[in-house]
Amino acid sequence: MAEAAVSSASYDVVIIGGGPGGYNAAIRAGQLGLRAACIEMRDTLGGTCLNVGCMPSKALLHASELYEMAGKGFAGLGIEVSPKLNLAQMMDQKSESVTALTKGIEFLFKKNKVDWVRGRGRIAGPGQVEVTAADGAVSTLTAKNIVIATGSEPTPLPGVAFEDGKVVDSTGALSLPAVPKHLIVVGAGIIGLELGSVWRRLGAQVTVVEFLDRISPGMDADLAKAFQRTLTKQGMAFKLGSKVTAARSTKDGVELTVEPAAGGAAETLKGDVVLVAIGRRPYTEGLGLESVGVAPDKRGFLDNDHFRTSADGVWVIGDVTHGPMLAHKAEEDAVAVIELIAGKAGHVDYNLVPSVVYSSPEVAWVGQTEEQLKAAGVAYKVGKFPFSANSRAKINHETDGFAKVLADAATDRILGVHIMGPQAGEMIGEACVAMAFGGSSEDVARICHPHPTRSEAVKQAAMGVEGWTMQA
Ligand code: FAD
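^ thats the input. predicted complex w/ flavin-adenine dinucleotide below
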């Protein structure tokens, strides 16, 4: 492992943070022959995503989905089993997968001659980064370019303090020692709904409290309505238009004070675990930004112009700057910033960053929602196709949901694709490619898709834009 024992060393690029932004930037720098170091203060590489985000949550979503299917879905297929939950084993397999993934990044660092400098990085002035190791040893790296990739952290809820095992953030909810009887999730965003789904499938009663009068802000409203119906059918309860104003720890759990967002009488909700999932905020603690004259904006994000901060030679990528707080966005930022540093062209189109909720069925989308198009006064056409009319979905008894294609009324260019259905997250890739190539709905409609696959629903929705859907 190219783990550097540096007291002073000089680099073309020093990256602070070893998450999807930081590690991809470091690897790309190595590939382009730049001398690169990545500073990470965790014991493992991979950042939020690999350690306490995307990957452990998907491990639990996968296992809990199979558990629920085995209990409720298999019998109808003629498979009779009585599943028994072994939560410790479920958590162990999650941790093993995470370890394999983080070790994989170490291997890629070695392969691409990237130095991993363990410790907390602090910018000490132009071209200078000081690293404090866990044992207190301090070293200084000299860098022609500094890339800030320090990511984000859970946003706390005012009046509701985190408390081990009782009031938890997403990290705590990924490692609960037992299935809660009643889990209250505060926030109906992607993380809250995914982790709420995990624990509901494993046997918890789950209530989601959301300030807005809808779930999943950012999701097309049509899709969000259908999604909420599905989650409700699965047993999740929702309290929309409600705000949590206080929490009181009791002997067996937590009592939350919940008020209507628009004002009115408060009520008490009792749960044994509360998951606060109201969003994430950029993380720049102790980063020494003042030493290069960079200041975060009002919400704590670092501004950028093509990944350049206001300081010469200091760049920023990933969750800590603007754009969707997603791992694949951070990865695209990473490649672009290093290519710019290397004198190449680097660019990311944030309109083409897809979003996925890894629920069952999955929800995925890319581009504009109907609400955004209406607000922008864009004339558009809609093609929609239900999975209940898709032969593969039908045969697999996975008929919930639909695919929807939005296309410019004048040019037919695809403006947005929205899918709720089995493996929607895999299907959305096709829409991203079509849109990146400036594709029209007719392009997708006339491209041969394999039969029988769920992806035919996307083709049929594209055909629907011009009204020639055939399988409805
Ligand atoms: P991070 O991954 O946060 O990495 C930043 C790293 O910098 C951290 O490891 C931190 O320790 C380190 N660091 C910070 N400051 C310093 C310092 N001064 N010195 C040294 N090191 C420092 N995104 C998806 O795209 N798909 C998903 O399915 C998904 N699921 C998620 C599920 C959960 C539960 C959560 C919490 C997040 C999920 N995300 C998902 C979001 C995703 O994890 C983030 O968007 C992504 O990790 C951002 O990458 P990043 O490199 O910008 O920051």
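The chain has a mean pLDDT of 96.
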